[in-house]
Amino acid sequence: MQANRILVVGKDEAHAKAGAARITSDTFTQVQAAPWTEAIPLASSGRYQLVIVLAGSEIGIAAVTTFARSAERWTQREGMMLVALTEDGTAALHRDLQRAGFDDIIHRPMHPTQVGGRISVLLRLSTMRRELARRQATARGFTSGDGLFLAPAEPVIASRRASVLLVQFDQSAHCAEQFNRAVRSCTEATICDDPEAARSLLYRGGLDAVLLCAAVDPKGAIEFADRMRRVPALYNLPVLLATPDVSQLDLDTVFNAGVTDVAPTCLSSEQLSVHLASFKRLEALRAALAVRYTQHVEMVIRDGLTGFAGHGFGMAHLQSTLHDCAELSLPVAVAGLTIENLDEINAEHGYLAGDVVMRRIGDMVRRCIRGEDMATRLSGSRILVQFPDTRYANANVAVRRLANVLRFQKIDLRGGASVALRIGYTLACWDGKADARMLVASLKARKVAVAA
C-alpha cells in the first residue's frame, strides 16, 4: 500500500502508543509506535518520512536532545524529518530542546486535527528534501559539470521576523483579538478586516505567509484561499487558517482549497512562530527546487522555450522518482496537459505566435505548480507534470485548477491579435509496477478532459 510512514517514539510501548493515538491516521498514513530502546534502529532504517519523539513528562529533555543530536547524520541522508511533540508547556520553551536540531517542535497539541495539519506540512517538507537530492542526482548524468546542481541540500533560512498579511473574517470575536496579539508580537503584520481589500494587498510582494482568522465560520476563509490558488503569482504562498475549533474542520476540503496549515485561535506567539518558521522553510525549499534546472543552458536538461525540463531529463527524473517512491511505498501522480488548439494558432498566426503561446504557458505552469512538482515538455503541445508523494484526489484538484487557470488566460500576439487556449488534460496514479515510459503511455490511452 502506498502511504506515508510515521514513527512515534515514547518511553515505553504504552507511552508511545498513547502518543500515536493523538495523531490522526488514515488510509494514506501509517503511524507506528516504538519504545525508546528500539527507536534508533527503526528510525535510521530509512522507512519513515517522519519520526516524532514525545518530549516532556515521561522522557526528559536531556534524553530527547541526545537522541536528536545523534540522529542528525542519518536524518539528512534519508531526507527524514525529526520532530519533538511536547507534552507540557515548559518543555516546548526549553532552550536545549530548541537547539537540539529538531526539524520542528509541535507545542502541546489541543486536538488531533491540529497535529494532522502540522504533520501534512512536515511530510511535504520531507518530500521536498528528497526531491532536491533526486534532481541533483539525476542531473549528473546529463551534464559534464555539476554547475548549479552543487547547491546545498537545504537553503539557509533568514532569521528576520516573518512578514504576513492577516485577514480577519470575524474580527469582533474575543478569540480573534487573542490571535491578533500573538500575530503582532512575533511578525511584521499587515492586518485587514475586509477580504476584498486584502486581495490587492496580496500582490505587494515580500510576504512570507497569509494568515486567515475565522473566529465564527471558516467557510469564507476557505473560499478566500481557494480563490488565491487560482492566481499564478499566489499559488505557492503559504496560508494558515486559524479558527477556534479545529476539530470541526474537514482537512481534505481545507487542504484542497489551498490552505497550508491549520491552528486554533488560542495559539501563543511562540507556537505561531513555529508555524511561520516551517512556512519560511517551505518557501525557501520551493524556490531552490524551482531553479534546479530552469537556469541550465543545456537543452537536454531544459526546454529553452517553456523553461520546463527537457524530454530526456524529465523522463529520467520520473524513473528515479518511481524507484525512490517504490522503496518508500509512496504515491506518484502524473498529469498530461495538451494545448488542443496549438496547431490552429500556428496555422492562423504563424509559428512565432505559437512560440509566444508556449513561452506564456511555460511561465504560467511554473508559477501554478509547487516547487517539488516537475513539468516536462514531452513534445510540441504536450506537457507532463509529475506530482511526487501525492494522492490521485489531490493531484486531480491541482491539475483541474491549473487547466482552468490556463483556459482563462488570453495571450496577446503581435499586431493586436489575442488567442484563448483550449486545454486538455489526463491524470494517472502510479500502480507501483509500471516504469516511466509505461506510465506516460497510459496517459495517452485515457479519455482527455477539456477544461471548459
TrEMBL record:
Chain ranges of the GGDEF domain: 330-452
Signal sequence extent: none
Catalyzed reaction equations: 2 GTP = 3',3'-c-di-GMP + 2 diphosphate
SMART domains for the chain: GGDEF
Any one Gene Ontology molecular-function term assigned to this protein's record: diguanylate cyclase activity
Record SUPFAM superfamilies: CheY-like, Nucleotide cyclase
GO cellular component: plasma membrane
Enzyme class, broadest EC rank: transferase
Top-rank taxon: Bacteria
One of the GO BP terms on file: negative regulation of bacterial-type flagellum-dependent cell motility
EC identifiers of the protein: 2.7.7.65
NCBIfam families to which the protein is assigned, alphabetical: GGDEF
Protein name per the record: diguanylate cyclase
Species in which this protein is naturally found: Sphingosinicella soli
Organism classification: Bacteria, Pseudomonadati, Pseudomonadota, Alphaproteobacteria, Sphingomonadales
